[in-house]
Amino acid sequence: MQRPTADSTNPGPSRLLISSCLIVFFGLLLMALRIAQKNEIMAIGAVWVANALTMVLHALYWKRYGVSGGFKIAIVIQLVLTILPFCFGSLGIMAVLLMLGGEIHYW
Q1: Alpha carbons 81 and 100: distance in angstroms, whole number
Q2: Whole-angstrom Cα distance, residue 107 to residue 94?
Q3: 7: DSSP letter
Q4: Burial class of residue 51 (count of CB atoms within 10 Å of its CB; 0-12, 13-18, 19+)
Q5: Domain spans of the chain, in order of start
Q6: 39-75: per-residue pLDDT in tens?
Q7: Cα separation of 36 and 45, whole Å?
């Protein structure tokens, strides 16, 4: 029987992709539930929390494995969108609403 190679247990980007997709999927489910309940502010909060969780995952992946230039820019933009409401109050919330405008307007 052939022994497995050393690379077969390397997590690689697949764990990050699966984790990010699961967080986004459940965040969108929560958003759809809150919109169906006519609670748009909670829908925005669900997507904001999902964005924050994926940002943490991406930052940890960046620190551990490193990423290319385009992905670094995307992670920094994600970080800015996550902390804007804390830094700028209503202007930060308006930026998050701008990010989510298409989803909220569609429903």
Answers
A1: 11
A2: 18
A3: G
A4: buried
A5: 16-106
A6: 877 877 788 888 888 888 888 888 888 888 888 888 8
A7: 15
